[in-house]
Amino acid sequence: MIWFSFSKVFPELTPFVKWCGATWIGTYVRHAAWAFKFIETVHILAWVVLLGSTLLVNLRLLGMIRGWSVEQMAHSVSIFIHASLLLVAVTGILMFLSNPFRYYDNLAFGPKILFFAIAALYQLTLYRWVVRSSKGGIPLWARIAGGSSLLLWFAIGATGRAIGAI
Prior knowledge:
There is one protein chain. This protein is mainly alpha-helical and 166 residues long. The protein has one domain. Helices cover 79% and strands 0% of the residues.
């Protein structure tokens, strides 16, 4: 796995990171005893919903779940995917603002953000096309897309967990 910190790759972002920590919301989240814990809990619950929803669609793409078409499955969970994706992004930003240098210097944060950007872009563009074009049968390239999506989302989870360990 690729490990890098933003502070080593993008040292010119230091003034921006300092500004992030000085914002009123960053200061509030950092100083309110309950705020960070609440935001982190919502962040993790949103991840669970996001991973569970995308897991259902990807398992259908991989042919491990039968009964519904890929398009039906994706349509049924799309509200959960989109709402939790938004919630993960918002709570992630709030957590970052609370202690930006902790994340800026962390070796796992850079890969998490990189994987998240790729996965979110993939989810909102190519993935939609794969789901819509998988009517009837599921071709090999659609199965590969489902497996790739699973790998991306679980890599984000693993690197997110590593943030606390590094």
